[in-house]
Amino acid sequence: MNNRTDRVRADIAAFGWHVVKVLGESDLPEFAYTVGLTNSYAHPEVIMFGAPLDFMHKTLNVIGSAAKGGARFETGRPYSSIIKGFDCCFQEFPKNQYSALLGCALGFYEHDNFSALQCFWPDAAGLFPWDPGADRDCVALQPYFYREA
Question: I need a labelling partner for 87 at 20 to 30 A (CA). Which of 22, 78, 119, 139 fits?
Fold first, then answer.
C-alpha cells in the first residue's frame, strides 16, 4: 500500500469517509469528493466542483456527518441545511465519469458498483446551473454531467 491509500483507509476507519481534493486543470475546475460513505453508511459518494477546495471539503464533511446521522439526499430538491445561507441541490453523477474523476473511490472499492451524487451550489441569486439566467461563471465552474432523459 502507499501513503495515500493508507490515509484514505485510516480516515474511513476513524471517521466513516475521506475527502479527496483535486486541483483544477485548464479544462476542469477544482473539485472534491468523498470516499467511504457507501461503505460506512450505504449512502452515495458525493462530488462537488468549482468552489474553493477548503469550502468543498467542509461542505462534504457536513454531508458526511448528515449521512452518518441517517440523512439521505434526494436528487432534484433543494437542501438548506448544508451550505449556510444557500440551498444546495444534488443530481446523479454518471458512472461514465467515475474513471476520469473518482479514481480514489474506484481504488478503495475496487469496482464501480457504487453510486455517486453531484452537489451543486447556486449563484448569488440562488440559481443553479440548469436554471435559466444562472450566472455564467457559476455554470462554468460546475460541470453539469446530469441530464434528464
Answer: 22
